Structure formats: structure tokens, C-alpha cells
Amino acid sequence: GHFSVKSDVYSFGMMVLEIVSAQKNGFARPQDEEPLVYRAWRLWNEEKVLDLVDPVLENNYQPEEVIKCIHIGLLSIQEDPVRRPRMNTIVAILNGDSINLPMPKAPQFLGNPTSPSDETASNPCTMTVNITDVHPR
């Protein structure tokens, strides 16, 4: 509920994933469509992360650059703000500096999106968020 440098990094990471995939991270989607965060993590873990890329691009991109962007996006949406990279690190990486990125961890709220065993943990639509305590920057 508080804005910070690390919440800005989270927003940046979501934007990167949305741009690469041409898919919004909203909950207004067809019921059978996998949420962007689930899809990104599933493809990352299956080592098929380039399947996340918008098909309109028709391979008109450098795979290593897109993988780097997706990696940055996934690191930026880490559950623990301490694990998110700082924006100056992200800028350096995007400018071509050789920085070893840690492997991202799946957010705790992901669970298994298709498992009916714990509907609250696996369905992000059932999560509640208190937005009454918003502070301007």
C-alpha cells in the first residue's frame, strides 16, 4: 500500500512483461486465458521463455536481448522487495554492462493456477488488497 523505489521497480517489471508479450496483466481476460505472471513463470521454468514474445514480432528481435528483458521483468516482480534490482542496475544491464543476474524466484502467491486444492492461494482474483491507505510520493 506504500509507494517506494521498490514498488516502482515492480511496476517497471510488469510493464516490461506486458510489452514483450503484448498481454495485459489485468484480471479482465477470457476465463481460459492464463494470467501473464503465471504464463511468464511457467515458460521461464520450462525454458521456453521466448514463447512469451508477441507473435506479431515474427522473430524480428534478438533472442538474447528479449531473454534479458524477461529476466529483468521477472526479477523486478519478486515478492520480497529486497530481491528486486535497483533501477540503476537495470539501466546498466540494458546499456550492455556485464552484470550477473540472480535467478528469479516464483512469487509465493502463484501456487498452481489450475489446482482447485487451495482456491485462495492459487487464484489471484480472490486476494484482497487494502487500498485505503495510499500515500502520494
Write up this protein:
Helix content is 39%, strand content 0%. It is an all-alpha fold. It has a domain at 5-24 and 35-95: Transferase(Phosphotransferase), domain 1, CATH 1.10.510. The longest helix is centred in the first third of the chain and has 17 residues, at 5-21. It is globular and about 35 Å long.
How is this fold's topology laid out?
Blueprint: H1 5-21, H2 36-45, H3 63-76, H4 87-94, H5 119-122
Helix pairs in contact: 1-3
- Sequence of secondary-structure elements: HHHHH
Strand element count = 0
Which structural class is indicated by helix and strand composition? mainly alpha
CATH superfamily of the domain at 5-24 and 35-95: Transferase(Phosphotransferase) domain 1
- Biggest sheet statistics: none
Average pLDDT over all residues: 77
Number of helices: 5
Strand content: under 5%
> What name does the CATH topology of the domain at 5-24 and 35-95 carry?
Transferase(Phosphotransferase), domain 1
Helix content: 25-40%
The assembly state of the depicted protein chains is single chain
Rg, rounded, reads: 16 Å
Give the termini separation.
12 Å
Shape: globular
The first-level CATH class name of the domain at 5-24 and 35-95: Mainly Alpha
Q: Segments where pLDDT lies below 50 for 5+ residues?
A: 112-137
Which architecture of the domain at 5-24 and 35-95 would the CATH scheme give at its second level?
Answer: Orthogonal Bundle
